[in-house]
Amino acid sequence: MKTLSVLSRNNSCLDLFDGKILKTLFHLFVKPYGFCYKYERVRAITLLEEGYSSRKVAKKLGNNINHTSILRLKKNNDCTTAVDVKRSLKGNEKIEVNANTIRRVLKRNGLHSRVKQKKPLLSKKHRKIRLTFAKKYQHWTVEDWKKVVWSDESKFQIFGSDGRSYCWKKPGKQLQSRHVKPTVKFGGGSIFVWGCFTHLGVGYLCRIVGGLNGELYRQILEEDFLQTLEYYNLNPQTIIFQQDNDPKHTAKLTQKWFVNNNIEVLFWLPQSPDFNPIEHLWNNVDQQLRNLNIEIRNKEALWECIENIWNETSLELCTKLINTMPERISDVLKAKGGYTRCNKT
Fold it and tell me: 124-334 has which CATH code?
């Protein structure tokens, strides 16, 4: 009997095998059946004959098909979603890949979908300044950072953040109060506060009514800041004061105030809340406000709640935050001045 050639045998296999199975196999795991080469179909049949399940066959084939192109597009940040990758491959490389396949490829390579975090824009100049700062202070220990008194302003809304809220509701059912996030025209009101903290605990919290100008800021320093130092028995000449680069903070009269009081001011970075541990204290206050089982109807009630939460901030939390400073510096060095995860607590 004449032996069949490999090609003849493969053609016979293709005729004998159920095309519907192959279509399902490639559509679900690799790419649409019509875009499969003949050798790919033959390879699939061979693996199926050897006893591999459809899923394992798809995995074997899929591991080598278009993975390089998919990963390259994500690595270069050319595409942000699986659908973007699919469009790019089809338009630029004439490759047809299912979006679900792309997601599986990315997941197998350790890439998972996440909501983009909102962070201040970092220009090349900002990155360079951040990197220089990190290099300068990379050898500071926790004891060095304990000398710093951290300060900042923050705003709190009566109705919390302006972000999305989610609820569970059956389709077609009437909206109940629990399904609605109440809003008030003109935002419902907010208050603005100034605060500081040390390695010994939080300082005095100041409510700012109206706008903050240089004169009011110097008054806050004279009263709330200096009283905080006095409360913790800290010598103004031995501490280092941190503030951001707001024009009210860097005004000539404000700088003169620091000189007159022999207080050293830490050079600070633009667009760098990830460096400032007080940001976590504000987040802590905001989170606890959301967890309160009371309805805050006006600014006075909001201020009372904020003040109570602030004053109950534990020494342990303040200590933990300052202990993270060497790691924050290290993270910025690793990121070469770029973004960090900013979740040190």
Answer: 3.30.420.10
Residues of each domain in the chain carrying CATH 3.30.420.10: 124-334
Q: How far apart are CA 202 and CA 325, in angstroms?
A: 17
State whether residue 1 is helix, strand or coil.
coil
pLDDT at position 171 over 70:
no
Q: Got the DSSP string for 33-90?
A: GGG--HHHHHHHHHHHHTT--HHHHHHHHHTTSSHHHHHHHHHTTS-SSHHHHHHHHH
Which are the contacts of 235, defined by CB distance < 8 A and separation ≥ 6?
Answer: 229
What does 250-304 look like in DSSP terms, one character per residue? HSHHHHHHHHHTT-EE----TT-GGG-THHHHHHHHHHHHHH-SS---SHHHHHH
Residue 168 pLDDT > 60 = no
